[in-house]
């Protein structure tokens, strides 16, 4: 059978019935897993700590109260993100009347755009139609299955990735030499650099692709030793550093030197042990990586293959580095997920083309016998193992959405009726309740854990207009269960609240409790 496309080696792509059935199953699963987040865009149900944090920052960016966008270090509010996402979310939030809803819309569009761009990049790297479609669906499947809170969550991670992938598409869409290596001109290099810096001004941890392009161009200049390769490397470096310097300079002019202090000297607990905890949640990276590795023995000449290999290496190493910091969770693995999905799409196309040439022919014959359906099955192993619980969960979330919205509205109204100010661990609750942002619990506890004093926190507790706090229910002394070091530090900071204030109502999910001040 043929889908009308061409495999990486120029031969017609052949896919069997089982492959098409598996792809239909993936597409249906994506719809099931993404249904609740899409239907719940306007639902006042907290998804993650970051949602309220980003909403208040968007308000500060537009001068809608809460102080400067980049506060002085040592205060109760911190900001270690670049500014662009806050202004974009703030403008849309002003139009929609809800900063969190605006952030969710932007995040959902960015996630879908990132998946589409992954497919387009896979296509430019030799994947045919079905392979490119796999590169689109696999990130959506695994984010929906194992990083569900990051689907339509008010956070700039996917926005930064979408802009970064746009830059990559610009880079790989130029001409290539006979070996399949891109030979971008100066204009394309400059445009790529500008877009990548723009992505960094949305989220500062999307560094894998810039590193990959730099290493790829550098390796080409060192191995080929021709003037044109060195010229491309110089144009890339000058353009990248130039745009980065311009962006940082504008931010310093707009926000003052505190911008650099907040961004570069943000206090955070670092521990290599955290890597192991994060690695346990990334089985999809392993399965996609196994499929991608079949390209090494296929004998196929993959267009932009060197760049993709560098991107896979850089993204995995960078993810491991990020995971050493507290507060960095599954979003650190999104870049390798995208890169390996692109490589998987190319690998499926190579297998469908039955290419068994050149070095590694024996391995390629083995891959050919497995075929694209077998390779897709390997890529889907983590999801297939969990699908019996993941898919029913997605259905239940849709069925329970209206009931959960009503229950959360009751809890948020309880917070709204408090006569004074309320501090919220999950700050989206305080945002929807119309309360000010009093404390960023995570960042302040990191500040204290790295040697900062508690002067600002003691002043907050002494405020006469403080009515209470919304804190995790497991911060109470009677709560049992395993808690990581990050939560124990936050509990140690806030234990005087749970000890001294009156316990109020629980949130609908049982994870938060309103503590009312006893005066």
TrEMBL record:
Q: Which residues cross the membrane?
A: 20-41, 84-113, 125-145, 157-173, 185-201, 207-223, 235-259, 279-297, 304-321, 333-352, 373-391
Instruction: Specify the domain of life of the species encoding this protein.
Output: Bacteria
Q: What is this protein called?
A: Glycosyltransferase RgtA/B/C/D-like domain-containing protein
Q: Which residues form a coiled coil?
A: none
Instruction: Report keywords, A-Z.
Output: Membrane, Transmembrane, Transmembrane helix
